[in-house]
């Protein structure tokens, strides 16, 4: 039986323990992936801690993880364009495991030159970045402000927006400012006075704002954009509601942006314009340590579990 990391009760990272699970069987339109790497995301930790229990009930024991890279080892009915043995990355279910299922339209072939660890870092950021830009209707004539541009989702959004021809201002910690500037954004340090620094950087103002930081920036963002209509948070629903701005989360979104996001990431990789650093890697059996590293913050890139 495949091995997974699961929690049988809400709590700290220590509740993540090994569990033998039944071999998943792909349904129509699904593929089963022999997982080689799995991304670790804040949502995983929120589910584990019980912070999401009011909005998202899970059946215990629960295997977290929505991001994978590996090899197709079985296909369901109606899947004719992927074969057993092909290397894929994408969004799936219960990915802290040796095997996981994913819908065919939520996975893409891993492009040449991308290793599985970096492939596992792509899907969530790519889907979120594409969804955010589509929601904000960002085009070539726009100036986009990205809060948290030093993070994985923020950095992906910067790259995607630049590929659309937009100008991008990115806020980040002082340590991350050089990294954000290297992405091609106009980098601004966050914290007190950030709105003034943005105005100095782009005196003509910004057309749209994306918050990936959750650092209580929505009020200032609405002022910078001139209205809440094109201000979006993917992390702070309370502040978005308070200021009349928008909030988007993948499970609640009506349109699935996974395929488009993955396609854009693959195109950028092939053009040499995709850069997603790995902060740390942990074996699957050390998923609890990976969650501790996530909670510690100060990340310089993605945390990834090495599965096989």
UniProtKB/TrEMBL annotation:
Short name of any one Pfam family annotated for the protein? ADH_zinc_N_2
Keywords associated with the record: NADP
* Domain Enoyl reductase (ER), residue spans: 11-305
Q: Which domain of life is it from?
A: Bacteria
Protein name as catalogued:
NADP-dependent oxidoreductase
């Amino acid at each position: 039986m495949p091995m997974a990391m699961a929690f049988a009760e809400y709590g700290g990272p220590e509740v993540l323990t090994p569990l033998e699970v039944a071999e998943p069987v792909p349904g129509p339109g699904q593929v089963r992936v022999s997982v080689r790497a799995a991304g670790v995301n804040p949502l995983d930790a929120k589910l584990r801690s019980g912070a999401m229990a009011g909005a998202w009930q899970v059946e215990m024991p629960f295997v977290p993880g929505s991001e994978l890279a590996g090899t197709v080892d079985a296909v369901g009915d109606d899947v004719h364009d992927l074969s057993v043995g092909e290397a894929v990355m994408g969004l799936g279910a219960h990915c802290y495991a040796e095997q996981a299922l994913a819908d065919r339209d939520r996975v893409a072939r891993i492009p040449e030159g991308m290793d599985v660890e970096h492939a596992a870092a792509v899907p969530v950021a790519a889907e979120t970045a594409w969804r955010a830009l589509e929601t904000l209707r960002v085009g070539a004539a726009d100036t986009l402000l990205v809060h948290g541009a030093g993070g994985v989702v923020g950095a992906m959004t910067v790259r995607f927006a630049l590929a659309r021809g937009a100008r991008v201002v990115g806020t980040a910690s002082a340590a991350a400012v050089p990294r954000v500037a290297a992405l091609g954004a106009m980098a601004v340090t966050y914290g007190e006075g950030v709105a003034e620094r943005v105005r100095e950087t782009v005196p003509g103002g910004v057309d749209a704002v994306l918050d990936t930081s959750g650092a209580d920036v929505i009020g200032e963002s609405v002022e910078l954009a001139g209205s809440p209509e094109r201000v979006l948070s993917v992390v702070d629903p309370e502040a978005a509601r308070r200021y009349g701005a928008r909030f988007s989360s993948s499970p609640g979104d009506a349109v699935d942006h996974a395929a488009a996001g993955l396609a854009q990431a693959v195109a950028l990789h092939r053009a040499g314009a995709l850069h997603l650093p790995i902060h740390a890697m942990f074996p699957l059996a050390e998923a609890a340590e990976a969650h501790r590293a996530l909670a510690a913050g100060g990340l310089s890139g993605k945390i990834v579990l090495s599965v096989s």
